């Protein structure tokens, strides 16, 4: 698979929707993830990321202007022991509860489907990073309608063992802007991971469409110790 420039993938797409990047730093010492949200409506844009325990939650920037909390207020990131869960919806909680009950990542998502937001039927994208005893692997998933047909759910899980230094995978909800919005197609894109946490966060944030971007979360986890650094950038200040 050709390695793509994450900056170019973001810069050339005015509306990838919500996106997850997971990979490994160039020096091989850090497990890397980024999650961003975008919005076209005033309701979607009226959000910020806030810290919640070891993860984050979305909140309304101006609560009085919140129209419909469903599908936009959720915890995108939660941590369960050695696992860091990153998703674009409340399936974060489904995965957390499933892993805690002894289910696998894939099994935990069996009870969920794409979002019920006709006519888009936005895919549910998810990832889990496992860092333990100096070892690191991750999985990603997408649950999507069958080419816009809500009567069928297509489920895809991708597993990455012993990730290569400086490589990551990028999955997002929409191929590009449109009405209805076209769901992501194919396997997660192979992208280059470069720089420290601040450089990487800057790369992602500056290349997201200025009008549509809302918030960004980036985390670097030390594979040897499990300690982590986090950066949160919100357009609404």
CATH class: Alpha Beta
Going by CATH, what is the homologous superfamily? Inosine monophosphate cyclohydrolase-like
SS summary, helix count? 5
Helicity level, as a percent range?
Answer: 10-25%
Task: Give the class from helix and strand content and strand pairing.
Answer: mainly beta
Rg computed from alpha carbons, rounded to a whole number of angstroms: 16 Å
Q: CATH architecture, please?
A: 4-Layer Sandwich
Quantity of strands, as a count: 13
Name the strands of the widest sheet in spatial order: 11-10-1-2-12-13
What amount of the residues lies in strands?
A: 35-45%
Q: What name does CATH use for the topology?
A: Glutamine Phosphoribosylpyrophosphate, subunit 1, domain 1
Number of domains: 1
Please tell me what the overall shape is. Answer: globular
Distance between the termini: 39 Å
Summarize the helix and strand pattern as letters: HEEHEEEEHHEEEEEHEE
Contiguous runs where pLDDT drops below 50 for at least 5 residues: none
Q: Whole-number average pLDDT?
A: 98
**Main sheet?**
6 strands, antiparallel
Description:
The chain has about 240 residues and is mainly beta. It has a single domain (about 5-235), classed as Glutamine Phosphoribosylpyrophosphate, subunit 1, domain 1 (4-Layer Sandwich). The chain contains 5 helices and 13 strands. The protein has helices spanning about 5-10, 40-45, 90-100, 105-110, 195-205, and strands spanning about 20-25, 30-40, 45-50, 55-60, 75-80, 85, 125-130, 135-145, 150-160, 165-170, 190, 215-220, 230-235. The strands form 3 sheets. Strands 11-10-1-2-12-13 form a 6-stranded antiparallel sheet, covered by helices on one side. A hairpin with a 2-residue loop joins strand 7 and strand 8 (about 135-145). The chain is globular.
């Amino acid at each position: 698979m050709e390695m793509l420039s994450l900056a170019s993938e973001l810069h050339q797409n005015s509306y990838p929707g919500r996106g997850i990047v997971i990979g490994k730093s160039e020096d091989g010492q850090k497990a890397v993830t980024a999650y961003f949200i975008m919005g076209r409506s005033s309701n979607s844009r009226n959000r910020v990321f806030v810290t919640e325990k070891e993860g984050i939650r979305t909140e309304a920037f101006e609560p009085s202007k919140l129209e419909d909390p469903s599908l936009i207020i959720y915890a995108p990131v939660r941590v369960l022991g050695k696992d860091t869960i990153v998703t674009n919806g409340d399936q974060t909680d489904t995965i957390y509860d499933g892993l805690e009950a002894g289910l696998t990542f894939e099994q935990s998502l069996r009870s969920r489907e794409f979002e019920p937001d006709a006519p888009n039927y936005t895919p549910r994208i998810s990832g889990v990073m496992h860092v333990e005893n100096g070892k690191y692997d991750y999985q990603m998933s997408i649950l999507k309608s069958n080419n816009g047909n809500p009567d069928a759910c297509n489920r895809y899980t991708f597993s990455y063992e012993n990730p290569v230094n400086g490589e990551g995978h990028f999955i997002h909800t929409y191929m590009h802007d449109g009405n209805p919005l076209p769901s992501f197609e194919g396997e997660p894109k192979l992208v280059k991971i470069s720089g420290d946490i601040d450089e990487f966060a800057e790369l992602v944030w500056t290349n997201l469409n200025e009008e549509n971007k809302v918030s960004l979360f980036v985390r670097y986890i030390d594979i040897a110790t499990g300690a982590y650094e986090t950066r949160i950038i919100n357009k609404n200040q």
